[in-house]
Specification:
Shape: elongated
Radius of gyration: 24 Å
Low-confidence stretches: none
Structural class: mainly alpha
Helix content: over 70%
Amino acid sequence: MPNVVLLIPIADILDVTVTELLRGEKIDTQKNIDTKEVEELVVGSLDMAVRNSIHQHRKNWILAYLLCFLMSITEIIMLVASGNSIAEMKGDILLVTGLMLLFGAWFCFFAKDMLPTYYDANKINYVSQGIFRIHLVGLSFNNGNWMYICTTLKIWTLATVVLYPLAGIIIINCLNIALWDILNKIFLIMILGGMVVSIYIIGKKYE
């Protein structure tokens, strides 16, 4: 069913009402229209528009994830080719990149965009979907902020997947690995701290 917003100009051109266009028949002006029926038609159209929007949104994020995945693999190959062994990288670059790829994959492929309605009626500070669970004290999850929180986490995880190995390439190859060992800890604090702070800011804004 098409979006109601798109049907309005079409209805004007055809000189019919939106309800008549949705029903596919001319309505007798002398006949009382069932209010519930009209509401169901309009809500159905809006629901379809929302579902289509969510589907396209998810498709875009899946493409973004696959692109970032390929970029991160390329960067790790570059690190290995420049003389860094897998053993040297497994404690930081491989571990962090792998975890971010895992969480990013879950949010881009499997996370539900809508929460059950009881989240809107109650103050619940955790979300559990399958093997994933997020619990943040002082922040209530609902359908007003959940999609924004998911988007924030997607941005942080995918950005880390690309930028963290890239920082390793630049520092290790252009400077030295000892400096990377120092800056690496600072980067991890910035990544994790920034992610949590961003979630709280966005979550509270739309709570």
